Amino acid sequence: MIEKLEKEFFTRDIRLVAEELIGKLIVQRKSDGEIEKFRITEIEMYIGEEDLACHAAKGRTARTEVMYAEGGLVYVYLIYGMYWLFNIVTGLKDQAQAILIRGIDNINGPGRVGRTLNLDKTYYEEDLTLSERLWIEDDGYKCSFTRHPRVNIDYAGEIWKNKPFRYLMK
Hints:
A hairpin with a 6-residue loop joins strand 5 (83-90) and strand 6. This protein has helices at residues 7-10, 14-21, 110-116, 157-161; strands at residues 3-4, 25-29, 35-46, 74-79, 83-90, 97-104, 107-108, 134-138, 145-148, 166-169. The chain is built from four helices and ten strands; from the N terminus they run βααββββββαββαβ.
């Protein structure tokens, strides 16, 4: 049975959400009404202000405000002036944690994910539990994953760049 994920799924601790999010389906309704589904194959966790790789490490800003909301919202941001990256806010209000979607199906890299989903700034703060254009489904698929250090975060220092916060579906 296929189920759309509810608010309770996203408002738990980020580690629990991450372990269960890998293998779930991103579902998107296109402007023409067509539905597309993509299996989540790679994610990275960013666990709050103490995590020096997390955008919230510098505190609340207009850009990061959504990270301080209750889980289930979308945090998108533009990098290199061309790629919208897709993050899912998790946890309780004021915890500032989010999961970056790095891979779906045969698409690797968060920029390619954003481009495939045609993301833009209108997705910022989209509620995945209420949205009619973007949501996450559980189709019962069970997968295993491996843990790895996150990538491209050398600025965060040795401790944070080496934490095994990147999950890859086997």
